Amino acid sequence: MKNYIIIPTYKEAENLKDLLPLLVKYNVIVVDDHSLDGTDRICRKYKNVRLITRKDKRGLSSAVLDGILSIKDRDAKIVVMDADFQHDPAKIPEFLEKLKKFDVVYGHREEAQMSLSRNIISKVASVLAKSMINGIKDIKDPMSGYFAFKKSSIDIEKIKPIGYKIMLDVMASMKEGGKIGEVNFKFGDRKNGKSKLTNRVMLDFILQLMELNNFRFLKFALVGLSGIVVNEFFAFVFHTFLPLYLVFIASAEISILSNFILNHKITFESRVSIRQALPRYNLIALVGLVINVSTALYLSIFVYYLLANLIGIIIAFVFNYILSEKYAWKSYEND
Ligand code: GDD
Ligand code: MN
């Protein structure tokens, strides 16, 4: 039996009672964070179930990773699922079947099954994830927690889990040329108990994204702030001898150049030549400026002008960042 199911659990005894009888055909690994709700008693009833109990609660991703690391079988096919029946166990054979052709298979949640707020959070998170992590741009549901992979297709040592999005870690550490497949499923309601997805968990997720992104997003933001200082300084200097419209144009262009140099050296660590990056970045920054100003002008009809300006800055910043990453400093590994 090379098929393994990993189930991370925290206070899921009630659900395990119903779920484990459906999984007797597989090697099941339950990774529990010391729930003290009878999880161990239920697991002991099944010969095919191995329970890993961790004494301190360390989160969903690290639980799944501990499960993966406990599997010695090199040819293992591994399905990761939640205990609460939001992940339909009837789909497991389909995941395993797809692993014959693909290296990682993710469950694509059909959207109608989620509440509106959940849907929005999920959409925002997936746009962020897609813009920050290379190689996942065609994935329809990067936030899914139901997925499967061949152990031999990933570099396990590369995984540094934080937060709860272990699938992103697994995809980010897939070996060269790996193929990603998909299974559709209905994201149902939790059967018993409550969700563990708290604010703290969401914060961890943002940290995880930043880390997978090598903190380029943050560096880009800091460089942007330094650009404001440069811009103001040169506006102050030029003001003594240039007409105002030239003051703004010249100081803006100088700050674009200083941002470019810093981003080239620090944020993108010179991953392409200056000849490619400079004209592209300059263009992006100018378009960004137009976006900033026109958004601010438009929104100022409805809201306080400083708020309008702030929203304009944020939208232009995200635009600048994504295009810098995907176009100006586009490197081979980007696709
Ligand atoms: N060991 C361990 N430690 N298990 C945990 C922990 C933890 O800290 N936190 C949660 N779990 C287990 C739960 O017991 C459950 O089996 C599974 O992880 C999912 O937790 P839920 O609390 O049900 O999460 P959710 O339904 O809000 O989120 C699920 O759906 C999301 C998609 O909307 C998860 O699958 C997410 O990964 C997924 O992104
Ligand atoms: Mn759930």
TrEMBL record:
<dbReference type="InterPro" id="IPR001173">
    <property type="entry name" value="Glyco_trans_2-like"/>
</dbReference>
<dbReference type="GO" id="GO:0006488">
    <property type="term" value="P:dolichol-linked oligosaccharide biosynthetic process"/>
</dbReference>
<keyword id="KW-0328">Glycosyltransferase</keyword>
<keyword id="KW-0808">Transferase</keyword>
<dbReference type="GO" id="GO:0004582">
    <property type="term" value="F:dolichyl-phosphate beta-D-mannosyltransferase activity"/>
</dbReference>
<dbReference type="GO" id="GO:0016020">
    <property type="term" value="C:membrane"/>
</dbReference>
<feature type="domain" description="GtrA/DPMS transmembrane">
    <location>
        <begin position="219"/>
        <end position="329"/>
    </location>
</feature>
<dbReference type="Pfam" id="PF00535">
    <property type="entry name" value="Glycos_transf_2"/>
</dbReference>
<feature type="transmembrane region" description="Helical">
    <location>
        <begin position="283"/>
        <end position="299"/>
    </location>
</feature>
<dbReference type="Pfam" id="PF04138">
    <property type="entry name" value="GtrA_DPMS_TM"/>
</dbReference>
<dbReference type="InterPro" id="IPR039528">
    <property type="entry name" value="DPM1-like"/>
</dbReference>
<dbReference type="GO" id="GO:0000271">
    <property type="term" value="P:polysaccharide biosynthetic process"/>
</dbReference>
<dbReference type="InterPro" id="IPR029044">
    <property type="entry name" value="Nucleotide-diphossugar_trans"/>
</dbReference>
<dbReference type="GO" id="GO:0035269">
    <property type="term" value="P:protein O-linked glycosylation via mannose"/>
</dbReference>
<protein>
    <submittedName>
        <fullName>Glycosyl transferase family 2</fullName>
    </submittedName>
</protein>
<comment type="similarity">
    <text>Belongs to the glycosyltransferase 2 family.</text>
</comment>
<feature type="transmembrane region" description="Helical">
    <location>
        <begin position="244"/>
        <end position="262"/>
    </location>
</feature>
<dbReference type="GO" id="GO:0006506">
    <property type="term" value="P:GPI anchor biosynthetic process"/>
</dbReference>
<dbReference type="InterPro" id="IPR007267">
    <property type="entry name" value="GtrA_DPMS_TM"/>
</dbReference>
<feature type="transmembrane region" description="Helical">
    <location>
        <begin position="305"/>
        <end position="323"/>
    </location>
</feature>
<feature type="domain" description="Glycosyltransferase 2-like">
    <location>
        <begin position="5"/>
        <end position="122"/>
    </location>
</feature>
<keyword id="KW-1133">Transmembrane helix</keyword>
<feature type="transmembrane region" description="Helical">
    <location>
        <begin position="217"/>
        <end position="238"/>
    </location>
</feature>
<keyword id="KW-0812">Transmembrane</keyword>
<keyword id="KW-0472">Membrane</keyword>
